Structures are given as structure tokens and as C-alpha cells.
Amino acid sequence: MSAVSDQSTASTGTSGASGTGASYAAAGVDIEAGDRAVELMKEWVKKTQRPEVLGGLGGFAGLFDASALKRYERPLLASATDGVGTKVDVARQLGVFDTIGHDLVAMVMDDIVVCGAEPLFMTDYICVGKVHPERVAAIVKGIAEGCVLAGCALVGGETAEHPGLLGEDDFDVAGAGTGVVEADRLLGPDRIRTGDTVIAMAASGLHSNGYSLVRHVLLKQAGLSLEAHVDDLGRTLGEELLEPTKIYSLDCLALTRTTDVHAFSHITGGGLAANLARVIPDGLHATVDRSTWTPAPVFDLVGRTGSVERLELEKTLNMGVGMMAIVPEESTDVALATLADRGVEAWVAGEITERGEHPTGAELVGDYAR
């Protein structure tokens, strides 16, 4: 987001510089393009600022006033880092760069909120084969918009130009975030009890996991065009695949203020059962009933087109559930009402029981509703 990496020592930023000696520009690195990208992204970064953020773009580090944490008795910092995976190739092919940032923020900040932490700030890393200022600025615009939705600040980052390693149109994005939670409000397995309710929150689509499978099946095997309209989807394939990942951070925090939430599970790589099992303590078991929801058509499209078995789909894709909350049974109605008030589609999907003979911490049962 800030300076283009390794360019502060370059003597020129344009490939048309005079002289016959080697130069950074001749090697493919354009400093002036990097500077232009920074100028274009400034207005979007400014929109993410929280009162604790000090300084602006151009520094070597982002600054966050930690005195804001004095209101906590025992603040625990939560951190996470992630990327968007091969979804970036769909964005590259379509030339759409202002949505991929939402995916990045969701992957990072929704991991952080799982333990009950409030997202505070985030940094990004954008690696490109060639700096196209407007393209880089569009990526940062998406990241900034995502940060606003997550309630966090974008305090710094890096745009790295890697000619010779990446093609001119190739790029990748990654990010890291930090949040804070009061120690006695930390959520997780220790809070879960027999009889708790498992609440599912609807996904906006595929989110940002399983795209290697999706691209292999739909684009390579079936030869579908990203620009082709797909009747089952009601839009083009590209529009479906680029649907931004829903960001649940503020919705989850709202839930912690109105109900006694015991745990959250962010449904990402590995699928629903595997991610839910990560927060289920030894001795207990989560049963999720598939009949409580109908996965969006894109999941059936992938499965049917590639003859992908259901269990393979379920361990790769989110199947329509992006986040799960585990709450006491008596808090179920309040939890659903809170999410409904925030416009989040949610439903009771399962329950917590004694593990008994169950070999794993979570499993899906039944058939999906049609």
C-alpha cells in the first residue's frame, strides 16, 4: 500500500532514461508508476482510518495508538494472515480488480473475530509483475472498502514489482491483521456445552476457497467462458466467481453484545465440518443437518459439471455457510433476531451433544433441502 518495495535506491523510474548502463528501469521496475499508484490509493486508505491511527501514507511503518487498549483489564491481541488464493486469476482474466480486496479482508479479519476479538488494523502486500497504477489503486480500493465493513483501519502495506518472476498482468495479494479481546471474553472450545445451538450464517457465494477445484472443473474441464451467461446462476460465470466474500466481523461482534456466544467458526479451506471441528472440545460433538438449507446453484454446478462427489465438495467448498456461531439454547432466538436485524441470513443448523461413538468433532447429516 505504501512504497513500492526495493525502489528507494533506484536512480531512475522510467525505461526511457538516457545512458547505456544498466538501470532499475531497464530491469523492468518503474518507480514513477509505483509513486502514481500510491497517490491514487490515498483517498481510499483515508476512509479506513480509526482515531487510534497516527500518521499517513509514506512512512516505513503504520502507527496505532496502543493507549486505546487501557480500557481493557487484560487485553489479548489476536493476529492472522492470509491471501485470496487462485481467485486472483479470475480477477486478472476479467480485468476486475476492485472486489478482490473484500475477499482479503474477510479471510483475515473473520479469522480474528472468531475468538471474539475486535478488528483493529490491517496491512496489505500486493505483488505484481508490472505496476499498473490504476490497477493497484483499484485493488487497494477494495481492501479499504473491506476494512470499513470490518471496522478496522488500513495502516500500511507494500506494493512489490517483480519483473521476470511474474508476467506483466500477474499479481497476488496477502494481508495481516490485528485485533483485541478482553481475556475473560475470549471465545472458544472451553465455553461450549452440551445442548448448545449451532447457528449457520449464509455465505455470499464461493467466498475465497476451493478455486483451484472450481477453475479446474468449470474453466479447464468444461471449457466454460467467464463471460458466458449461466441460466442456473442468473448471471455470467465470471460475475458469480468474483462475488466478494461476505465480511462477518461486525455482525459477530454485535452477536457477542446481545447474547452469550460460546464460539464462532469461520468456514474456509477444509469445508464446514473440518472448520467447525476446530472449536469443538474433546468429549463433545457438533451435528449439522444439511436439510436446514439449500446450497446456492454454483455448488451444484461445480459438483454436477465435474462429477465431484458430495464429500469432496464439502471438504473443499463452504456449501453456502460462511460463518457459524455456537450459543446456549436459550439464547437462540435472540441470536437469530440480532442477525436478522443486521440483514444476515441465519438459521439453526445443528446442536452440540456428547461425542459418544462419533469419531470426529463435527459431522454433516441428512440431505440438502431442495
From TrEMBL:
CDD domains assigned: PurM
Top EC class of this enzyme: ligase
One Pfam family hit: AIRS
Classification via InterPro entries: PurM-like_C_dom (IPR010918), PurM-like_C_sf (IPR036676), PurM-like_N (IPR016188), PurM-like_N_sf (IPR036921), PurM_cligase (IPR004733)
Domain of life according to the entry: Bacteria
Domain PurM-like C-terminal: from-to ranges: 194-357
This enzyme's EC code(s): 6.3.3.1
Protein name: Phosphoribosylformylglycinamidine cyclo-ligase
